[in-house]
Amino acid sequence: MVNVTADEIRSGLRNNEFILYYQPKASLITNRIVGAEALVRWRRPDGTILSPGAFVPLAERERLINRLTLQLLPQLIGDLVDHGLADQLCISFNVSTCDLEDPVLTHAILDAILTQRLPPAALELEITETQALQSGPEVLGNIRALSDAGIGLAMDDYGIGYSSMDTLSQWPFTTIKLDQGIVERMLDSPKNATIVRSSIRLAHELGLEVVAEGVETVSQHDFLVEAGCRIAQGFLLSRPLPLAEFKAFCAHPSHCRGLPVGLVHMAI
Ligand code: C2E
Ligand code: MG
Ligand code: MG
Ligand code: MG
Fold this sequence. Notes:
Elements: H1 6-14, E1 18-27, E2 33-43, E3 49-50, H2 56-61, H3 65-82, H4 85-88, E4 90-94, H5 104-115, E5 123-128, H6 129-134, H7 137-148, E6 152-158, H8 164-170, E7 175-178, H9 180-185, H10 190-205, E8 209-212, H11 218-226, E9 231-233, E10 241-242, H12 243-251
Parallel strand pairs: 2-4, 4-5, 5-6, 6-7, 7-8, 8-9
Antiparallel strand pairs: 1-2, 1-9, 1-10, 2-3
């Protein structure tokens, strides 16, 4: 992994080097693309592209994550509104709970709904289960304001934390995202399969949508369909793509790299 410093992140922020890629999500019922997850990438001056694992944890520790999130938000809203993604798709955006400790991000999103015609149903925020558990009341207050405005809330990496049940009942989640580790292991043992099946059933009974992350194989896809999961995301469908490629993928899934939507069974 590349080692970066806080000063390099600051310089990257000044030079607008952070961009969003989009990883498609498909309905397991219709096989159509129903949305995407926005994932940050750092385009360095030398042309290399860095993944968030190399800089997001440092940005969080150095309290630079709020600046990064606020810099990505106009990009995201521009892509949603000006590039028409918001008309048909729901795009999720990862936030850290420190982004929600003060009301700046919340106000920026509410303002975009009012002044930039951002349809609230087109945006969902992803927060990890672990972060949700560790956050204070001001975070939940801001989340509630966004939720009241119609913005979705997904619990990211579901299944690797501790007290999901309590958090699920207290917070206005609309979606859970099954962690890719859980998806990877669900075919290893009958116990793991049962955990996934019952998590999906529980979420649906609570009125929540379920997205399976990290779906890489046809057997995982088939198991999830049989378990009643309705949305999947993962390399089987597509890797995260730059905006132009993502738009091309949505328009002509079978002409792009990644797997043709509707033909996932022919993939392997
Ligand atoms: P995440 O939110 O759980 O995102 C899913 C990660 O899984 C992404 O990694 C994605 O590329 C990867 N992935 C998707 N499908 C597959 C698959 O089939 N197999 C495997 N092995 N991996 C798959 P990525 O883009 O490197 O992001 C890593 C993490 O960085 C994210 O995990 C999220 O926690 C964080 N992150 C990404 N973008 C942002 C952002 O804009 N802001 C913040 N605060 N965090 C971000
Ligand atoms: Mg995520
Ligand atoms: Mg995740
Ligand atoms: Mg993750």
